[in-house]
Design a protein that fits this description.
Length: 105
């Protein structure tokens, strides 16, 4: 080994590592969180699914009720109706809550 390499390696301190990446207490805390939040996760996901289906259902009812002559016009009528907008807003709110729950896990 050259003299420069010996000096360079002599001056480098070895990093200190913990014996384990995750300690038992941290692991237990993480498991507690997963267990304790499971019901909230399930309810939040269910709300999102219901909201998604309600948007589809509302749109289908509005399409069926529309007297427009083309499919594009019926879809435009449906998506500008206040009932569709309310269903879409609920879907967006539920999706936001779901993403928040996922990021916490």
């Amino acid at each position: 080994m050259s003299r420069i390499s010996e000096q360079a390696t002599a001056n480098v301190q070895k990093p200190q590592f913990r014996s384990r990446i995750v300690e038992d207490a941290e692991f237990a805390k993480a498991l507690d969180f997963l267990r304790d939040s499971a019901e909230l996760v399930g309810k939040t996901r269910a709300r999102l699914i219901r909201a998604e289906r309600m948007v589809e259902h509302t749109e289908a009812l509005l399409l069926k009720a529309s007297s427009a002559t083309s499919d594009m016009k019926r879809k435009a009528d449906a998506r500008t109706d206040q009932r569709w907008l309310e269903a879409a807003e609920e879907e967006a709110t539920a999706a936001g809550e779901w993403e928040k729950i996922k990021s916490l896990r």
